[in-house]
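Quick one: co-fold with succinic acid.
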Amino acid sequence: MSANTIADNRHRHNLEAMTEIWLFGYGSLLYKIDFPVLEQRKASVRHWVRRFWQGSHDHRGTPDAPGRVLTLVEEQGSLCQGLAFRVEPGVFEHLDHREKNGYLRHCATLLFADGEQTEGLLYVADENNAAWAGPASITRIARQIKASVGPSGRNEDYVLKLADALRAFDYEDEHVFSIERALLSE
Ligand code: SIN
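Sure, here it is.
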């Protein structure tokens, strides 16, 4: 099932008057940067956590056998570490297509390591989208991921590449690392 959010995203923010925008990436945007970037910085967003709760029917699974990919879930007091990319607005045409299976653009305050902050956009898939997979135990999530493959490749590779990227940036994420451990121990 496709949740196709391309049209919704176009209407959510009018980017026409802008010359550049900050984008926050926390999932595949950390290891697959297939768009032009003016500047890249380590950054975090407050009150969000990474969760493998979004179904993937188009990249890491199929409509009959969806995989699981990351989304952000609100959690007061938490901090999600990722990357901030300064980009030209035209990049969002590509990103809206890439993130079309249920993700909507949201505004967020991006915090940089040196204490500076800026407003930016990030993609979130919530429980109201048709591809939502929802919470499950680490074991069940890992089992579903192990069994899934789609046009972008094995679902397992999404997790392994992401975990490597998090380590390379010195980031901790127990949710991601415990799924990685479950995948590697099978
Ligand atoms: C992101 O990486 O910021 C969005 C979710 C994804 O593409 O994995």
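If it helps, The chain has a mean pLDDT of 95.
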